[in-house]
Amino acid sequence: MKKVRTRFAPSPTGYMHIGNLRTALYGYLYAMKEGGDFILRLEDTDSKRYVDGAVQIIYDTLKDAGIRYAEGPDVGGDFGPYIQSERGAIYRAYAEKLVELGGAYYCFCDKERIDSLKDENGIGRYDKHCLHLSKEEIREKLAAGVPYVIRQNIPESGTGSYTDLVYGEVSVDFKDIEDGVLLKSDGMPTYNFANVVDDHLMGITHVIRGSEYLSSTPKYNLMYDAFGWERPAYIHLPPIMKNSHEKLSKRNGDASYQDLVDKGYVKEAIVNYIALLGWSPKSNVEKMTLRELEENFSLAGINKSPSIFDEPKLRWLSGEYIKAMTDEEFLSLSEPFLQKSKAYGKYDSLKLAHILKTRTEVMSDIPSKIDFIEEFGPFDSALYFNKKMKSDENIAREVLPDALEKLSSLETFENAAIYAALCDLAAARGMKNGQVLWCVRVALTGRENTPGGASEMAEILGKERSLERISKALGFLGGK
């Protein structure tokens, strides 16, 4: 049995789209599960679409996501690289061989003639004109240096059929496929030709790509068959949708992997979530590390139906990864976002990290969660009302003076001691803990929602500032 070999073959045309990363991830996971090789190849023959810096984005994204390749460009490694623009002589030789085999032909038609060709629906379509040139005419034009391309010779009738491991049997009428260009006039191959030659030469056993290639695969198979090469197995992936009507697309400005990282999503959560966009594990477990994904991935779990990119679910998953961190790990990752807060540098960062960790899903939310600490001022006394806690501004007028006294007497101003003191106060007054804690938290922060409870917020603020704020809050109420 052949060793499984998969590949990721992106074009360096910009940032790493979520769909591209999913293709790379599935290729990697399948190869790892089967004990095979995952290969990187850059399809950069279209110079018009090439974007400076895009190659580095590909390298950096794969490395960042933990996707390791056995061949191809590697930081610090001795691999490959497989870069199509450096393999022009190989493609030319195979294109000429395909002409000899009858699977392709020289086309000397100029741009004006090509532009004038329309089918019955008014769509541009080549008419096989140059297929009928004699060998003598072809030799003369080549000798004269007439510009040419090499086109694929698609049968004018019949059907191209193959089995896809996700979609099952696929059939396409050859009359619906144009004689596409395989080798351009500048000598560079098109994607349609280079990917077939490279997949064969690199021993790719399983081609994993988007479902948009389902209908064009028969023309690739014609080339495999003409050369006498074994066809690879095909695994086409359903699209990732923005909503029920629109595909997720970098052309529409939808988020890339790096955009999500910059927003503060946990990297492992992004990779985990992308794996679930079109694939379902046998178990109901959704939170999985990359190693766990490698162990659990299977082609049987790939769905035919499109997946909708559900950012709330990604937020939830990111939050689950954050909850599993230590306070120190969270602080290390959240530091760049903490630095954007008005509260940064004025309070104990590790204590801030502790109260934020279980209440944060995306780290870019951190500044908005703690900026209020530095924005204390007069606030609406209606904030003291809480039906569940049975508190209101009258309860606050009763509780806050005693809380002020109780907290001022504490020698150790830490969460546990503060919480115990406030619970003792509630017991002494015959109140529920929540009544006291709610009123004190509102007095300390002037907010209905905060990342920590009363005792946690008091510890963050420190004794002096906590007592000062409760005193001011009493003033806002007009005293007892």
From TrEMBL:
<dbReference type="InterPro" id="IPR033910">
    <property type="entry name" value="GluRS_core"/>
</dbReference>
<dbReference type="GO" id="GO:0008270">
    <property type="term" value="F:zinc ion binding"/>
</dbReference>
<keyword id="KW-0963">Cytoplasm</keyword>
<feature type="short sequence motif" description="'HIGH' region">
    <location>
        <begin position="10"/>
        <end position="20"/>
    </location>
</feature>
<dbReference type="InterPro" id="IPR014729">
    <property type="entry name" value="Rossmann-like_a/b/a_fold"/>
</dbReference>
<dbReference type="InterPro" id="IPR004527">
    <property type="entry name" value="Glu-tRNA-ligase_bac/mito"/>
</dbReference>
<keyword id="KW-0648">Protein biosynthesis</keyword>
<feature type="domain" description="Aminoacyl-tRNA synthetase class I anticodon-binding">
    <location>
        <begin position="330"/>
        <end position="474"/>
    </location>
</feature>
<feature type="binding site">
    <location>
        <position position="250"/>
    </location>
    <ligand>
        <name>ATP</name>
    </ligand>
</feature>
<dbReference type="InterPro" id="IPR020751">
    <property type="entry name" value="aa-tRNA-synth_I_codon-bd_sub2"/>
</dbReference>
<comment type="subunit">
    <text>Monomer.</text>
</comment>
<feature type="binding site">
    <location>
        <position position="109"/>
    </location>
    <ligand>
        <name>Zn(2+)</name>
    </ligand>
</feature>
<dbReference type="GO" id="GO:0005737">
    <property type="term" value="C:cytoplasm"/>
</dbReference>
<keyword id="KW-0479">Metal-binding</keyword>
<keyword id="KW-0436">Ligase</keyword>
<keyword id="KW-0862">Zinc</keyword>
<feature type="domain" description="Glutamyl/glutaminyl-tRNA synthetase class Ib catalytic">
    <location>
        <begin position="3"/>
        <end position="316"/>
    </location>
</feature>
<keyword id="KW-0547">Nucleotide-binding</keyword>
<keyword id="KW-0067">ATP-binding</keyword>
<feature type="binding site">
    <location>
        <position position="132"/>
    </location>
    <ligand>
        <name>Zn(2+)</name>
    </ligand>
</feature>
<dbReference type="Pfam" id="PF19269">
    <property type="entry name" value="Anticodon_2"/>
</dbReference>
<protein>
    <recommendedName>
        <fullName>Glutamate--tRNA ligase</fullName>
        <ecNumber>6.1.1.17</ecNumber>
    </recommendedName>
</protein>
<feature type="binding site">
    <location>
        <position position="107"/>
    </location>
    <ligand>
        <name>Zn(2+)</name>
    </ligand>
</feature>
<dbReference type="GO" id="GO:0000049">
    <property type="term" value="F:tRNA binding"/>
</dbReference>
<dbReference type="GO" id="GO:0005524">
    <property type="term" value="F:ATP binding"/>
</dbReference>
<dbReference type="GO" id="GO:0004818">
    <property type="term" value="F:glutamate-tRNA ligase activity"/>
</dbReference>
<dbReference type="InterPro" id="IPR020058">
    <property type="entry name" value="Glu/Gln-tRNA-synth_Ib_cat-dom"/>
</dbReference>
<dbReference type="InterPro" id="IPR045462">
    <property type="entry name" value="aa-tRNA-synth_I_cd-bd"/>
</dbReference>
<dbReference type="InterPro" id="IPR049940">
    <property type="entry name" value="GluQ/Sye"/>
</dbReference>
<dbReference type="InterPro" id="IPR000924">
    <property type="entry name" value="Glu/Gln-tRNA-synth"/>
</dbReference>
<dbReference type="InterPro" id="IPR001412">
    <property type="entry name" value="aa-tRNA-synth_I_CS"/>
</dbReference>
<comment type="similarity">
    <text>Belongs to the class-I aminoacyl-tRNA synthetase family. Glutamate--tRNA ligase type 1 subfamily.</text>
</comment>
<dbReference type="InterPro" id="IPR008925">
    <property type="entry name" value="aa_tRNA-synth_I_cd-bd_sf"/>
</dbReference>
<feature type="binding site">
    <location>
        <position position="130"/>
    </location>
    <ligand>
        <name>Zn(2+)</name>
    </ligand>
</feature>
<keyword id="KW-0030">Aminoacyl-tRNA synthetase</keyword>
<dbReference type="GO" id="GO:0006424">
    <property type="term" value="P:glutamyl-tRNA aminoacylation"/>
</dbReference>
<feature type="short sequence motif" description="'KMSKS' region">
    <location>
        <begin position="247"/>
        <end position="251"/>
    </location>
</feature>
<dbReference type="Pfam" id="PF00749">
    <property type="entry name" value="tRNA-synt_1c"/>
</dbReference>
<comment type="function">
    <text>Catalyzes the attachment of glutamate to tRNA(Glu) in a two-step reaction: glutamate is first activated by ATP to form Glu-AMP and then transferred to the acceptor end of tRNA(Glu).</text>
</comment>
